[in-house]
Amino acid sequence: MERFRLKNIIIFILVLMNGFLLASVAQRRAAEQDAFHRTAEQLVALFQADGMALDPHAISRDSPPDGVTLSRDVELEEKAASFLLGADPAVTDQGGGIVHYAGAAGEAFFRAGGSFEASGTFEEEDPLDFCRDFCRSFSYEAPQMELDEDGSGVFTAGALFGGLPVFNCTVSFTIEQGVLIAVRGTLLPKSGTAAPGGQPLSAAGALGAFQRMRRENAAVASTVTDTRLCYELQTSGGAMSLAPVWRIVTDTEDYYVNCFTGAVSALGGVRPGEGGA
Fold first, then answer.
1. Which residues share a beta bridge with 230?
2. How far apart are CA 85 and CA 77, in angstroms?
3. Residue 70 predicted with pLDDT over 90
4. How does pLDDT run across 191-203, given as a tens digit for each residue?
5. Does pTM surpass 0.70?
6. Which of 188, 202, 215, 182 is nearest to 52 (CA)?
7. Which of 54, 90, 230, 235 could share a disulfide with 47, CB 3.0–4.6 Å?
């Protein structure tokens, strides 16, 4: 009987502890939500005072990922070369981090910093599907493709890493009269090593950095409609790394705020990740 009572007491204590923990978690979440709403209201008011509209729903609550250190993936380059040139292309190491591939369809050069270029006659029957298959196979977004009347066009697709866009990393396809004749861009390894860089900026912090830049440089924009996480490719010699950045979508162009340094950059009206010619 004593053992039974002791067991009930222990169960009762555990139930109380769980109840306290749940209440504490709920209280902390409520406090975080209140703090987020206050910050959002302050940001909206700050932007409004500067003559710019900020949609409060545009302020993301997502947490930035770590930075990533990348190592050259020769096997992936070989797969990309075989995809473009045909099976078992001839390989030549030209030194300086440059590898040359030659096959039945043409030739390709791959460099240590991830860039590559290929030229030849790659696909005549269905070049659009060929380009889409390349993007699916090597982690690029699906390009929006529509040929001119003579069957020509140049199309660009943004790279993806871990499901996030890499805003300054793309691949482009050149089709002339129904024939794919050139592919060039940057090929990212599919995995890397986490490289934490300290406490990253939240979306609210990135918006603050953007607004300071706008005041200093008189950047032309009147509305912020969204904030999204993405990566920025950074290269130094043959070394590659990815830094998390916030993409700030405005009515004129997109701006990118480095989550670790707060540096703001723009691409002159280009909106990567949306495909197109």
1. 245
2. 12
3. yes
4. 999 988 788 999 9
5. yes
6. 215
7. 54
